[in-house]
Amino acid sequence: MASDSAERQRIKEILVETLKLEDISPGEIGDDMPLWGEGGLGLDSVDALELMVVLEGKFGIRIDDEEIEPEALATVVHLQALIERLQSSQTGAAAGGEVSGSA
């Protein structure tokens, strides 16, 4: 899907921009490239925290540490799925609250 591709490109741009990855461009990050440890981008736990804060702001989501499985942060594809899941569940919860509050 074109929207999936655009969303993944946006995530890659956020990765490069937020984490100041000077040696790599967004186009060089594969959708399934490991983001953490050797053999991938080599990000660490400090990078994860910084990235989560930025993703919350850019995508209007709330990321609770206890709700996130480590594999949700493994690749750009996994990050996209996490963002979509949180947007869907949090939008539904907000809409549900508004409906019940007005009844």
CATH topology: Non-ribosomal Peptide Synthetase Peptidyl Carrier Protein, Chain A
Whole-number average pLDDT? Answer: 86
The helix content is 55-70%
The end-to-end span amounts to 38 Å
Strand content: under 5%
List its traits.
103 residues; mainly alpha; Non-ribosomal Peptide Synthetase Peptidyl Carrier Protein, Chain A
Structure description:
57% of the residues lie in helices and 0% in strands. It has helices at 2-18, 45-59, 76-102. The protein starts with a helix and ends with a helix. The protein is an all-alpha fold. The radius of gyration is 15 Å and the shape is globular. It has a single domain, classed as ACP-like (Non-ribosomal Peptide Synthetase Peptidyl Carrier Protein, Chain A, Orthogonal Bundle), CATH 1.10.1200.10. Helix 1 packs across helix 3.
Brief overview:
57% of the residues lie in helices and 0% in strands. The chain is an all-alpha fold and 103 residues long.
List the helices and strands and how they pair.
Layout: H1 2-18, H2 45-59, H3 76-102
Helix pairs in contact: 1-2, 1-3
